[in-house]
Amino acid sequence: MFPRSPRRARRAATVLFAFAAGFAGVLGSYLAVGLRPTFVASPVSSALVRVMPDAVVRFAIVTLTDFGRSLGIDHLGATANLLLAVLLAAAALGGLGVAGLLLGGRRSRPLAGVVVGSLLVAVSALLVTGSAASAVGAGAAAGALLVTGVALLGSTAEGGTPAASATGVSDGRRRTLGALATAFVGTVAGVSLFGRGDGAGAGAAAGGSESGDGNDALPIDTGTTSRLLDEAESRAFDVGGLEGLVSGDDFYTVDINNADPDVAAADWSLSVTGAVANAYELSYDDLLDRETVHEFVTLRCVSDRLNGRKMDTDLWSGVSAEALLDEADPQGEYVVLRAADGYYEEFPLSAFEGGLLAFAKGGETLPRKHGYPLRALVLGHWGEVNVKWLTEIEIHEEPVTGFWEKKGWHGTGPVETVAKLHGVERGEGTMTVAGHAYAGTRGIERVEVSTDGGDSWSEATLSERLPAGTGRSPEAKHAADAWRQWRYEYEKPDDTHEVVVRAVDGEGDRQPKGDGEAPDGDRKPFPSGATGWVSKTLEP
Ligand SMILES: Nc1nc2c(c(=O)[nH]1)N[C@H]1C(S)=C(S)[C@@H](COP(=O)(O)O)O[C@H]1N2
Ligand SMILES: [Mo]
Asked: In what residue span(s) does the Moybdenum cofactor oxidoreductase dimerisation domain sit (predicted)?
């Protein structure tokens, strides 16, 4: 068939066959456990984030993701990373499978080769993921593909391995289809026979934690949370394109890993350690036994573009950070928060004092993607210090460099002031523009709007501030850290015009224009967060 270079052709066929077996293995693992840390490609994906140059990681997590979002695709950066991880995992597993075939098989005993190949795949999947379900899924599926290859191609083999003889099959289309079908059936059968064992268990555990409606166990007064949520929502403006005041299920996510940690509350604990007089550990039940507080808190990622959408708000319920910290009696001024996904961030302890350790969001069990069973909320600070899947609060006497700071970001401090413009509505003779404004705990004093490209300015109407949570002092009427909406209605101009928005924070500071005109105004997110005036060119 390939008279010029049969050896080369054979090699190419072996590589293809190995890839097919590897992909089957990856698929089998996925069918067994889903997109979880125990999926074989997950550790590869995490390792990629750690070994790739920082610029590439930044590009993938920030630029590519924003680009994807502009096309309506969520998490494009993470998806690209996952695809690469799947390719690498497939290459590795396939290589192992075919190596096993050659090692154990020879021509006389091809089935022994299949067994050795499948075992190699399963054992390596087990070593990498620690999950028997994932390993059995991978081994069974790769094995199914290997055995199909051997059965179909082995008979036509003139020499060499069954895989190599793939080149000898010229009328192989039907056979190939048959092989794929057999591999698929084999995978499904294998996975449902063996894999579902702990796979289903993991699923059930996650289901319990993820369901969000299972808050019977939570000591939450849902009367209070629904009242606060209703009150907040009633303060929202209704302008086309404008998001609400409570983000709920539309809350953004930013994660260093593709597969979120799958933490079971029963196996989880939180330790308070380091430079403290009294180190201690808390179980999930200990935490629920404490006094619950509810707070509206806004999060904004330092990688959010100026008029981007990585800024959201919800009602969080949990325990006050100050109460937990007092018990430990800290002897240092810095805190490192560590999480189940290997993530950690450091910031001044004083910033944590008004904060919260939340086990619920929107009156329901904290969803897995937002950090179940427990996450930190650090008022007025960039999203990155709001560590999810929290496992450890560590006090330090000296500053430490956190995960994103190692990659060049400066995102552990207070947020920049921002006013977004997402809502545009055209009425009879008038136009309305609207958005959200946020300045962390400084609060928003006013938002100013120009409809002539910045020549003249008018004051926008602000939504009423969100209600104070139950953790505030009785005098506090308002949420300490939550955004507000602004809206501005004006006479519809005849022509295309430029609308510009800028906010003044509660300390009276107007945000800088950006564009280098103000020394601290940088419109790009990297490295310290985007700030500057948002503008939009609108048709009447
Ligand atoms: N454990 C852990 N915590 C984390 C992250 C993470 O990847 N792992 N991402 C951080 C970043 S960069 C942001 S902006 C916020 C986002 O929180 P959300 O996903 O609930 O919106 O979580 C922070 N906490
Ligand atoms: Mo972030």
From this structure: 426-513
> Which residues sit with their C-beta closer than 6 Å to ligand 1?
251-256, 299, 301, 339, 341, 343, 370, 383-384, 386-389
Q: In angstroms, rounded to a whole number, what is the distance separating the alpha carbons of residues 472 and 125?
A: 49
pLDDT of residue 184: 59
Are 94 and 118 a contacting pair, CB within 8 Å? no
| Mean of all residue pLDDT scores within the chain | 85
Distance 382 CA to ligand 2 centre (A): 7
Domain count, the chain: 3
| Domain interval for residue 94 | 6-205
Residue 413 falls within a domain, yes or no?
A: no
For ligand 1, mutation pick of 384, 389, 390, 526 (most atoms within 8 Å of CB): 384
* Closest CA to ligand 1's atom 19: 253
Q: Are residues 201 and 268 in the same domain?
A: no
What's the mean pLDDT in 119-141? 91
Q: How confident is the model at residue 212 (pLDDT cuts 50, 70, 90)?
A: very low
Residue 219 has a pLDDT of 75
Return d(Cα 134, Cα 476) in angstroms, integer: 51
Which residue minimizes the CA distance to atom 4 of ligand 1? 387
Please write the tens of the pLDDT for every residue from 464-517.
999 999 988 888 889 999 999 999 999 999 999 999 999 999 999 999 988 754
Q: Which residue has the higher pLDDT, 223 or 161?
A: 223
Q: 408 alpha carbon to ligand 2 midpoint, in Å?
A: 13
The residue whose CB lies within 8 Å of the most ligand 1 atoms, and thus the one to mutate among 46, 49, 254, 392, is: 254
Q: What is the CATH number of the domain that holds 387?
A: 3.90.420.10
Give the end of a domain, one of 367, 384, 407. 407
10 Å Cβ neighbour count for 442?
18
Q: Given a cut of 80, is residue 121 above it in pLDDT?
A: yes
Write down the pLDDT at residue 199.
Answer: 32
Ligand 2 centre to CA of 253 (Å) is 8
Per residue, what are the HEC states of 396-420?
A: ECCCCCCHHHHCCCCCCCECCCEEC
CA distances from 8 to 3, 15, 94, 351 (A): 10, 11, 19, 63
How far is the centre of ligand 1, averaged over its atoms, from the C-alpha of 46 (Å)?
A: 15
pTM, rounded to two decimals: 0.77
Looking at residue 173, its amino acid is R
216 in a structural domain: no
